[in-house]
Design goal:
The complex is a heterodimer of chains A (about 160) and B (about 775). Chain A is built from five helices and five strands. A five-stranded mixed β-sheet of chain A has the order 2-1-5-3-4, covered by helices on one side. Chain B has three domains: about 160 residues, Aldehyde Oxidoreductase, domain 4 (2-Layer Sandwich); about 180 residues, Aldehyde oxidase/xanthine dehydrogenase, a/b hammerhead (Aldehyde Oxidoreductase, domain 3, Alpha-Beta Complex); about 250 residues, Aldehyde oxidase/xanthine dehydrogenase, molybdopterin binding domain (Aldehyde Oxidoreductase, domain 4). Chain B is built from 18 helices and 32 strands. A seven-stranded mixed β-sheet of chain B has the order 3-7-1-14-11-12-13, sandwiched between helices. Chain B has a five-stranded mixed β-sheet with strand order 9-17-16-15-10, sandwiched between helices. Chain B starts with 13 loop residues before the first helix and ends with a helix. The chains are: A alpha+beta (about 160), B alpha+beta (about 775). At the A-B interface, helix 2, helix 3, helix 4 and helix 5 of A face helix 1, helix 3 and helix 15 of B.
Chain lengths: ~160, ~775
């Protein structure tokens, strides 16, 4: 089977340094899911259209189904599994639960990672900014309203903490 | 409202934690050592004879473990009408139909092997739309239709493409029309759309050499799936085990039996090995099921005062290549055919029609989005023509206590309050109020549309729940309603806690079924789980309490009738100081000398809807266990130069009885309305010569967060249902149903064009605006 060339990559995944041999055609999504069992990122379309596979690459949200693993060499990757504190989940996760922003849950990890990136860059986004930031993450269940409410609530709480 | 402890509270759902942390396992997240990967070869033609299949090269490819097709797997499936082979047999009937499948040690090898399968086709004339299918000498998609097995409540027609014809007859249609002051006749159409669950379909199967089969599936119906697999593959129920992980969205598209037999067929050829089959997004579009397209003809007679006196409706559903589950969509739309109206004389005919399109199946709304598009557009046309207010016209004609609905059931004050739904939406929309000044090319309008739906299910659709006490008298409630996103885990925990008189933190809902261990459930469809399983949970708690009381009565030297149980203890009603803490009795009561009576307490509860079949010739009877009424309204803005449609305000009011969980109820309503809005303004599976042209997210758009209306409001009307758990009613599907008509009616109000065909894209609106302008020009 044609597998392409094998490359050695070094990167950080959720704070842990990793070294791995990957084929040049392997995606970051596949590596995260199959090598590290980080199945929080989902494959909804495989074509960068739905956002279910969103993870952060050096702080920016990416569709990991479109990122080749070799592109992650020397990068910092953050996934849904890496944002909780030791004894408590992240305020965005908590807000998603409390505000009814989760239904089937398949888009949820990607949605939370996009919200996470947004709030890192802009701790106090208005509704239009939230909508724009989330517009690359499709959700078929919620109609987005409770997701937007959750992001607003999380922003408020995170600001309070930093306050 | 009663003073409830758990009911009515916005309890966060237990499953949300798993999902928000990435812990929740979906079908694609499950792996087994040594697992094989399946891939499916699909037909490139919508209608063709299969002359030859040659799999020899594929079989020889290193790493390929199984190759299968109709000759090796000559099985058929179907929930109500058994017309669908696992693999195309003799001919293919739609583009995307499975022709063969392979299982290999890697996905890459499986894909490589597909390319080595040679299939020779001879193309046949394509039945590409409903009109073609109904023509007298139309090619028959299923020449053997009458030889298929089907339940006797469905009526296929010999030598036609009609796989079901449901008839509704009420009153005297001719006399009704004779009484009419005016008669209105119109036609409406809506296209096929897809469920678009965010999670693609998938299944993992293993067929052991001893004949035992295990299937993991992203499904809405583990038990019905087990039943249909064992029927298709001729196995015993006890040898088939279905395990259902979290489902990443269903909307009807994962109901009944779907793609699972493909994984099973491969597992049968690769015995002892797990075979994982996960569909691509494109396969999810074309290889699962879709909402049927529909053409509706409606004729309505109205009295001088605006009372509807007669109505004749024909609905033609494009059921695609296989009827299967769609058979019952035709029936459900048929028995609700006039919507929530009180009409004395009705003639309704609902037809399911085979074409060479994608397979029609269950879809949120189950025929009701289709029928209400026809009815609610028509009502608006009549109201305007009669110079009546559209809201008032509906108030005059909708069902009220004492009315008899389409199938002859009498409406009571417990059925729900249709008028209150209309009033709530009208009030929130500032109905009838003047509009602000806008530039000349920007027009605003308001519209509303009503709806009703009952759970569509056979009369023997039953449910079971179990309530298990733990050592510390906390409780695990088990059921097999699937958590497909709707929030049944939260709602059923709340119902359980309420009945147990226990704090909800002491109740854990174990909601992911395994048919070997979980109680029976017909299916998670028809918005019925909270309603039906909720009743089973109540009965299970009562059963557990009865068991506790029986043992305690022996301890107290009393009788069960003199005892009561709360969340902490069982006690004598007359003397509450005499009690036994629950932890001391739920695993058996031990006397000081060690002697123990009773045993582990598990309550079992069931629920049966108590329905009847409908009369073959009139459709009259009792097929609906409960109704949910609703009204949806919108304010829109149309740019008359570009056709651009902006939805400013979207409102839904539903009489959902007692609200079990306002957080999840709101989620159902808003989520459903936005899915409905997508179907109104955007969504359509596009065909050319029977081939689907837009099976991807690039070409089939769904609404994003950036496309939302400025305001979205959900309103609860709460008339307790007589049979629902604590008075609750179904609401899962309903919010999707009448959004298209509400939007179309608002567009008419804004710019005076009546659009009969969905979706209401900007291009579609502009076309109508131009036609209207041209028409005006002609008249001048």
């Amino acid at each position: 089977m044609k597998k392409g060339f094998v490359h050695e990559i070094n990167f950080t995944v959720n704070g842990i340094k990793r070294a791995l041999s990957v084929h040049s055609n392997e995606t970051l999504l596949k590596v995260l899911r199959e090598h590290y069992g980080l199945t929080g990122a989902k494959e909804g379309c495989g074509g960068g259209e739905c956002g279910a596979c969103t993870v952060l690459l050096n702080g920016s949200p990416v569709n990991s189904c479109l990122v080749l693993a070799v592109e992650a060499d020397n990068a910092h990757i953050l996934t849904i599994e890496g944002i909780a504190a030791k004894d408590s989940i992240h305020p965005i996760q908590q807000a998603f639960i409390e505000y009814g922003a989760v239904q089937c849950g398949f888009c949820t990890p990607g949605m939370i990672m996009t919200a996470y990136a947004l709030l890192q860059k802009n701790p106090d986004p208005d509704e239009a900014q939230i909508k724009r930031a989330l517009s690359g993450n499709l959700c078929r269940c919620t109609g987005y309203v409770q997701i937007i409410e959750a992001v607003k609530a999380a922003a408020k709480r995170m600001k309070g903490k930093r306050g | 409202m009663k003073n409830f402890k758990s009911i009515g509270k916005p309890s966060p759902r237990e499953d949300a934690y798993d999902k928000a942390t990435g812990n929740a396992k979906y079908i694609a997240d499950i792996d087994f050592p040594g697992m094989l990967y399946g891939k499916v070869l699909r037909s490139p033609h919508p209608h063709a004879v299969i002359k030859k299949i040659d799999t020899s090269k594929a079989e020889k490819l290193n790493g390929v473990v199984a190759v299968t097709h109709a000759a090796k797997c000559p099985y058929k499936m179907g929930l109500y009408l058994v017309d669908r082979p696992v693999f195309a047999t003799g001919k293919v009937r739609y583009m995307g139909e499975p022709v063969a499948a392979v299982a290999a040690v890697s996905e890459e090898i499986a894909e490589e092997a597909l390319k080595l399968v040679r299939v020779e086709y001879e193309e046949l004339p394509v039945v590409d739309n409903i009109e073609d299918a109904l023509r007298k000498k139309a090619p028959l998609v299923h020449p053997d239709l009458m030889n298929y097995e089907y339940l006797p409540i469905y009526y296929p027609k010999k030598d036609t493409n009609i796989f079901n014809h449901f008839k509704l007859r009420k009153g005297n249609i001719n006399k009704g029309f004779q009484k009419a002051y005016r008669v209105f006749e119109n036609e409406f159409y809506l296209p096929q759309i897809h469920h678009v669950p965010m999670e693609p379909h998938g299944a993992i199967a293993k067929w052991e050499r001893d004949g035992k089969l295990t299937v993991y599936s992203s499904c809405q119906s583990p038990f019905t799936l087990r039943n249909l697999i064992r029927y298709a593959f001729k196995l015993s129920h006890k040898d088939v085990r279905v395990i259902a992980p979290y489902v990443g969205g269903g909307f009807g598209g994962k109901a009944g039996i779907n793609m699972e037999p493909l994984a099973v067929a491969l597992a049968k050829e690769a015995k002892g090995k797990w075979v994982k089959l996960i569909f691509s997004r494109e396969e999810t579009f074309t290889g699962t099921v879709v909402r049927q397209a529909m053409k509706g003809k409606i004729k309505t007679g109205v009295s001088r005062k605006g009372r509807i006196v007669a109505e004749k409706i024909e609905l033609f559903f494009d059921g695609g290549a296989y009827a299967e589950y769609g058979t019952n969509v035709v029936r459900a739309a048929g028995y609700t055919i006039i919507g929530p109206y009180d009409i004395e004389n009705v003639q309704g005919d609902s037809y399911g029609v085979y074409t060479n399109h994608l397979v029609g199946g269950a879809f949120r709304g189950f025929g009701h989005g289709e029928l209400h598009w026809v009815v609610e557009s028509q009502m608006d046309i009549i109201a305007h023509a009669m110079k009546m207010d559209p809201a008032e016209f509906r108030r005059i004609n909708v069902l009220k206590p004492g009315s008899r609905n389409s199938m002859g059931q009498t409406i009571t004050e417990h059925t729900g309050n249709m008028t209150a739904c209309i009033d709530a939406v009208a009030e929130k929309l500032d109905w009838g109020k003047k509009r602000m000044k806008l530039p000349a090319h920007i027009k605003r309008g308001k519209g509303l549309a009503v709806l009703e739906k009952a759970p569509a299910m056979p009369a023997n659709a039953t449910s079971c729940a179990r309530v298990k006490f733990n050592e510390d008298a906390t409780v695990i409630v088990q059921f097999s309603g699937m958590e497909i996103g709707q929030g049944c885990i939260a709602a059923l925990s709340q119902i359980c806690a309420e009945r147990l008189k226990m704090d909800i933190t002491k109740v854990h809902a174990a909601g992911l079924p395994d048919t070997d261990f979980s109680p029976y459930e017909w299916q998670t469809v028809a918005s019925r789980i909270t309603w039906a399983v909720g009743n089973a949970v109540i009965n299970a708690v009562d059963d557990a309490h009865a068991k506790i009381k029986k043992v305690a009565a022996q301890v107290f030297g009393s009788v069960p009738e003199e005892l009561d149980v709360d969340g902490e203890k069982v006690f004598l009603k007359k003397d509450t100081k005499k009690f036994i803490p629950l932890p001391d009795i739920v695993l058996g009561y031990q006397y000081p000398d060690g002697h123990t009576i009773g045993g582990p307490v598990e309550g079992v509860g069931t629920f049966t809807p108590h329905l009847t079949n409908l009369d073959k010739n009139t459709g009259q009877g009792d097929a609906a266990a409960e109704w949910t009424f609703g009204c949806e309204g919108a304010e829109v803005e149309v740019n008359t130069e570009t056709g651009e449609l902006k939805v400013l305000d979207l409102i839904g009011a539903f009489d959902l009885g007692t609200v079990i969980n306002p957080l999840t109820a709101k989620g159902q309503i808003i989520g459903g309305m936005i899915q409905g809005l997508g179907s109104a303004v955007l969504e359509e599976l596009k065909y050319k010569d029977g081939k689907v042209r837009n099976a991807s997210f690039v070409d089939y758009k769904i609404l994003t967060a950036a496309d939302l209306p400025e305001k979205i409001t959900s309103i609860f009307i709460q008339t307790p249902d007589a049979k629902g758990p604590y008075g609750a009613r179904a609401v899962g599907e309903h919010p999707m149903i009448s959004v298209p008509a509400a939007i179309a009616n608002a567009v008419y109000d804004a710019v005076g064009v009546r659009i009969h065909s969905l979706p209401l894209t900007d291009e579609n609106i502009l076309r109508h605006l131009k036609a209207k302008k041209a028409d005006k020009g002609k008249k001048k």
